[in-house]
Amino acid sequence: MHTNLRLYFIVILLLGMGIGLILYKHFALGFPLSPDDKKPVWTIEAKIDFVARGAPIIVSFALPPKTSDIAIVEEDFASPDYGFSELVSPTGRRAQWSKRTAAGPQTAYYRLSMYETDPASETDPADLPSEPEKPEFDEVLNTAATTLLDQVRSRSANTETFTRELIATLNSNAPSQNQSLLLNEHSNEEYKTHLIINLLALEGISARIVRGLYLKDGRRRQTLTNFVEVYIGGQWLLFNQNSGEIGKPKNFLIWQRGDQSLLDVVGGKNSQISFSIIKNIHSTRNLVVRDSMNKQAGIIDFSIYSLPIEQQNAFKMILLLPIGALIVVIMRLLIGIRTSGTFMPILIALALIQTTLLTGILIFLTVVGTGLLIRSYLSRLNLLFVARISAVIIVVIAIIASISIISNKLGLDQALTVTFFPMIILSWTIERMSVLWEEDGPREVFIQGGGSLLTAVIAYLFMTNRTIEYLTFNFPELMLVNLALILILGQYTGYRLSELYRFHALERRNVSGKR
Fold first, then answer.
1. How many CB atoms lie within 10 A of CB 202?
2. DSSP string of 217-252?
3. Residue 75 burial (CB count, 10 A)
4. Which residues contact 391 (CB under 8 A, 6 or more apart)?
5. What is d(CA 330, CA 406) in angstroms, rounded to the nearest whole number?
6. DSSP sequence for 356-403
């Protein structure tokens, strides 16, 4: 009883550790569970043009913030003969190009490759609003603003509905006199953004400008779009200043928060900036591995990914062995298939992966069949066991070499991979089958040989499945789950399926006899 309890404890521990690590890698690190999972990677190029006046030049450009909802794959900065530095301040990141003197048209480039992630939305406790400053309006505008705010307040219930109603009122197709005074005829999107923020400040509501870029493939000469972000209920909510919709739109990259300038050029004039966007599709797994390696995540830094590529390719095959072992356990303990040894089906399955299924089966049958004929002849020479098995090994090598040479002459490239078959195991199998033939007859040889080949083929089908190959390599924690299942199956002492089939026939005869 105590042994069973210890076994169940070990099994539960292995299952918990294996499944827990898999879930952690999937949900926390973003590893996909499917090899076909892909993500769009957006490449955004910002082109800055200006005319230098022949004096020292300093160009300062706001960079997008590093937030949890985007993963930056690559950043590039380019400008001819300019010095460059990246500055970080409480207001955000900025790129700065500088040059002692320059004249005429100048161009600087910033390129960003990124993809969106799906983190849980959390409010940054450090990103708290400051007390809104009351804007200064002249007497006429102040009266219009107060009247407009009174009307909006009467039609709203809380800060969120107040903001939405204010935006809807300012965008009305039939503006009132107060709206016309506040917006004036020459207002633009930038003016409207600041007007909304100022009106909210009069109401004691903290708000700020947000500039962002709609991500659309193949777009050129794009400009940033303004949104309004309002502090409501302990978090910042994003409002579309034209429609009042709440939340960040799909495929929208927030480039800058706050009222700081997007671009400053000292020593130049006629500065302008445009954005070009292109979309590429990348494997999610590759992106997550690269991002995790850059962040030096412990579970990735001390994993197979840290090994050289050659060793990683070797582990792709090695990590399939537990799947083959589980198939052998199921076939022998649950189904009742008899095999020639425990490891032979797994090794045959590995060889089949290299040689392809049909070619591998033909090679296996040829080598074993020829080996059995030669082994039967050696048995007449009354050799000792050690000499006999050594002779069989040499014979197997000679057979494999002959198959390789003949297939090469015939142009059969697939048969050249015959060397992947484990020669020692093949020799031992031939010896065992020969002894089995002498002791139990050819029927038992065909049963165990066929069972080994059947089990190897089933293991091959599982081990060559794309999803299983992907999961075993990218989630090696599955070995713990695999081990737990094998430990549980090792306790099974009931009937095999093959035995149920035999006893079912016996039961039918007993029932017929009673009648």
1. 16
2. TT--SB--EEEEEEEETTEEEEE-TTT--BSPPTTE
3. 14
4. 378, 383
5. 38
6. -HHHHHHHHHHHHHHHHHHHHHHHTTT--HHHHHHHHHHHHHHHHHHH
Give me the pLDDT at residue 126, please: 46
As a whole number of angstroms, the distance between CA 418 and CA 98 comes to 65
- Give Cβ neighbours of residue 445 (< 8 Å, ≥ 6 apart): 433, 436, 437
DSSP 203: T
The alpha carbon of 347 is separated from its chain's Cα centroid by a whole number of angstroms, namely 31
- The structure tokens 């599982």 sit at 462
* pLDDT band per the 50, 70, 90 thresholds, residue 120: very low
**Residue pair 152/228 in contact by the 8 Å Cβ criterion:** no
Q: What are the backbone angles phi and psi of residue 63, rounded to the nearest 5°? A: -105, 150
Under 8 Å between Cβ of 379 and 388 = yes
Q: pLDDT grade, residue 298 (50/70/90)?
A: low
Q: What is the DSSP code string of 414-445?
A: GGGGGGGS-HHHHHHHHHHHHHHHHHH-HHHH
Contact predicate 487/11, CB 8 Å: yes
Can you tell me the distance from the alpha carbon of 315 to that of 81, in angstroms, rounded to the nearest whole number?
A: 47
**Strands 263-266, 57-62: pairing kind:** antiparallel
**pTM of this prediction exceeds 0.90:** no
Select from 232, 210, 209, 204 the least CA-distant residue to 128.
Answer: 232
- Composition of the chain by helix, strand, coil, percent to 5: 50, 20, 25
